[in-house]
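Our preliminary data section would be incomplete without showing what the modeling component actually yields. Below, a chain of 332 amino acids is followed by its predicted structure, encoded as tokens that our downstream tools consume directly.
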Amino acid sequence: MNHQLPEAQSVPADEDSSGIFYAPMSELQDPEIFHTVLDSLQTGVSVVDRNGKVLFWNQGAERLTGYKRHEVVGRSCRDNILLQCNDQGCVSCGATCPISRTLHDGKPQEAKMQLRHKEGHPVKVLMRLAPLRDAHGSIMGIAESFDEQTFGAERDCNRHTLAEHGCTDDTTGMPNHEFTQFNLGRNFASLVRYHLPFGVIVMQVDRLEHFRAAYGPPAGDAVLRVVAQTMKNAFRPTDFFGRWAFDQFLAILINCGDHGVTKTWERIRTMVTCAGLRWWSDELSVTTSVGYATAMAGDSIDSLLNRATSSFSQSSTLPLASATAKSQDSEI
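Predicted structure:
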């Protein structure tokens, strides 16, 4: 007598007392489930093959970099889609490239990097890389994950609060001149009363009027936004950065003496070289001049800033890395 097994029936999802449904384990083992989970993570995740060709680019990577997957998948990382910088400067494919190191060593890597956002400003991330191996142990590619450093997100929340009270600049979203001047005066009061040191860094965008005349006011505003977004990640969470004048930004380095001000200025130079601007089909070469000074007893706002701006000629003119670009309106 032949016995036939009953036909397999689908098992309904279970529901617990909280109303949450749980899918059967057989469904969770579907590879497409894992693909969907990886794609929906807020953490940036990408996969490249041995030749550096991007095979996977999730929603988190889109959010952090501004690049949609159709702009990245299928392209080689050697195209420098995302300019990567570390503490020593910008790196390209070679021995210093994290992907190349992982392919060569076969070991997981972790590094603090800056990725250039599609809009031009650097994004500080903690990047982790791990080799992907086949059944024989040979490396097939590299999996990357990256998260933005948290203090940037906290500052964004603070700026939203300032905006609600009319303390931000409409063009850049940074604290406006009035609020920047208020913070500068508050630090002078701390210097006089408690002898707490502080310094300032003045950044001036060169030829801003030229950009506005040649490409229109929106191009000039775009230059200011790139500089602002670049600089907001250059300072400690306790420091202050805001708009000072038509073509100037001001950083207030709180509880910082001569040595700290100089070290911060040196770090800014690395930050700026990782920036860039996209505007139609032209290559825009944007430069900034940076001056710095430490507040001294007897200083006024004018004397401190005059000393900082007089050092423009002593400091290098810092180039914002140029790029062949398109209008922001055409890419957003």
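The radius of gyration is 25 Å. The CA atoms of residues 84 and 175 lie 28 Å apart. Preliminary results of this kind motivate Aim 1 of the renewal.
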